[in-house]
Amino acid sequence: MLKVLTDRGAKVGDMIGAEILSLWDGNGAVKLIDRTGNAMLLEWLPGPSLREKAPCGQDQMAAKVISELSLKLRLSKADGFIELKDHFGGALPKAEISGFPEPYRDAFGRAQTMWQALLRTTEEMCLMHGDLNHDNILWSDRGWVVIDPKGVVADPCYEFSVVFRGPVGEEARAAKPERILELAELLARGANLDRTRILQFGFVHVAMSLAYHFTRGSISETDMAIFQAFDSLQLPVPG
Length: 239
Prior knowledge:
- This protein is α+β, with helices and mostly antiparallel strands.
- It has one domain: Aminoglycoside phosphotransferase (APH), C-terminal lobe (Aminoglycoside 3'-phosphotransferase, Chain: A, domain 2), CATH 3.90.1200.
- It is 44% helix and 13% strand.
- It contains 10 helices and 9 strands.
- The strands form 3 sheets. The chain has a 4-stranded mixed beta sheet. It has a 3-stranded antiparallel beta sheet with strand order 1-3-2, covered by helices on one side. It has a two-stranded antiparallel ribbon with strand order 7-8.
């Protein structure tokens, strides 16, 4: 497959994905065959995607695949990749809470506090996919592999933050606190990580995404519902 970036894609750094694909060299990821300028030649993967293979609430199967891939893809910190503190342009810590919808201001204040505490208490920084959702995982002749990495450097617990928002088509279930708790438990066991910290990163990630869109005058009703579900868990502030 030939992937040619638009000017916007090149501007936001999508070619960083080629760098990390080169590092993975096909181990748990689509193979990068060649690259030049704003174009990448990639291995063709017909799929299906994980969303297609694990629909209708099959979180146990999906969590097993995602956690195993996260372990395979995780690399020691590398230069040239964006750190979590700069992800989404640092939208959450820069956000003026007074400009947010009034019913959600306290929750965003809690998310800002949580964000700073998570960054302060991070003990290990790893290079990871950064957008490990169900649609970015495809079946291949060597098993499940990922596509479209962002190449984020962060605490390993952050890798699962986008998982709580999917899969596409199950938004109502994604906003249920009991589903969030169960999914976090599955991911924590699969990747041998702390369940509470995975939840904390899930909370701040959806807050960060909302803050990014608020500053541009838009709102995601799905993200807002998930954000409220996370806030209802009354997660402790780390450290």
